[in-house]
Design brief:
It contains two helices and six strands, in the order H-E-E-E-H-E-E-E. It is of the alpha+beta class and about 120 residues long.
C-alpha cells in the first residue's frame, strides 16, 4: 500500500496514517486509514480501493521523539505517553477530538512523529 501512496504526487511529500474520529469514519469501522495530501483540484488517478476525502482545516501540535534504531513500537509508545501527559491549556489550546490524529512513517533517523489537533480556548 505504501508504494501506491508514494506514487501519487503529494503536497506534503510523504504518505500519512490517520486515526479518524468517529464522525469521519466511512464505513464506521475505518478508524485507522492511510493516504496522502493532494491539491483540492486533484484530477489524477485514484487507485482502486482508495477515495478522496476533504478534511477541515485544523491546528496541530507536533510531537517528535528521539531517533531510534529498531524498536519503533517503543518510540510510538513514548510519544503517546508524552501526549497523555501534555496539557495544551498552558498555551491557550485544548485537544480537538473532532479532527484526526496524524502519524508519519516511523523513520528511525528522524524519530517518530505524530500530530494532534487542537483548538484555541
Amino acid at each position: 500500500m505504501w508504494g501506491i501512496l508514494t506514487s501519487i504526487p503529494s503536497i506534503s511529500g510523504e504518505p500519512v496514517c490517520l486515526f479518524l474520529p468517529e464522525g469521519m469514519r466511512q464505513p464506521k469501522a475505518n478508524s485507522y486509514v492511510q493516504g496522502c495530501e493532494v491539491d483540492l483540484d486533484y484530477d489524477g488517478i485514484v487507485p482502486q480501493g482508495f477515495e478522496i476525502i476533504e478534511l477541515p482545516a485544523a491546528d496541530y501540535l507536533m510531537f517528535q521523539g528521539e531517533p531510534f534504531e529498531e524498536d519503533y513500537g517503543k518510540a510510538i509508545r513514548e510519544i503517546w505517553d508524552a501526549e497523555q501527559k501534555y496539557d495544551p491549556k498552558i498555551i491557550g489550546y485544548q485537544w480537538d477530538e473532532s479532527n484526526p490524529r496524524i502519524q508519519l512513517e516511523p523513520i528511525g533517523t528522524r524519530g517518530y512523529i505524530e500530530l494532534v489537533a487542537v483548538t484555541k480556548i
